[in-house]
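Form 7-S
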Amino acid sequence: MMDMTKSEQIRAGLQKSFRSGTSARASTVCYGYKVTSEGDLLVYPTEAVIVFHIFDRFVAGDSLGQIVASLARMGVPSPTGKPTWNRETISKLLCNEKYVGDVVLGKTQVKDGVQVKAPDSAMQTVIKNHHPALISRELFDAAQQEKHCRERKKAHSQNR
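Output:
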C-alpha cells in the first residue's frame, strides 16, 4: 500500500467500502426517495407516482418532450424545483437502476478534477435489492430496451 499514490489509496478505500456495502454513496437520494437519519432510502409516495408515470409513458411510446409536457400539464415541478422538467433529467431518470432497488457504485471517477464515466465496468460494485423499488424490473428493462431502440433508430436516420 506504501507504493500507491494518494489517489490510488483513496480509490482502493472507496472500492473496499463499495464491496462491503458500507459506502455512504449507496444511499445517495434521488427523486422519488427520501433518506432517513440512519441513511436508509425510503419511498416518497408523492414523487414515486411521478417516477412510475415517466417510465410508464416512455414505454408506452411517449417522447421525452411529450413527457415534459404531461408533467407541466399536471403542474409537477422538476426535482430542482423549476416549473418544468427537461428532457435530459427524464433521460437520466430512465437509466437510474435505483428505481428497481439496486445500487451501482463506482460508475464515475474523477479525472483532472472532472467527474467522468468510469471506463472499466469491472470496477463497479452492484448491490441488488439495496432499498425498496419504485418500479418493477420488467418496466425498467422495457424502458432500457425502448431507449436502446430509439437511440439505434436515431443513429440510423442520421447516417442516411
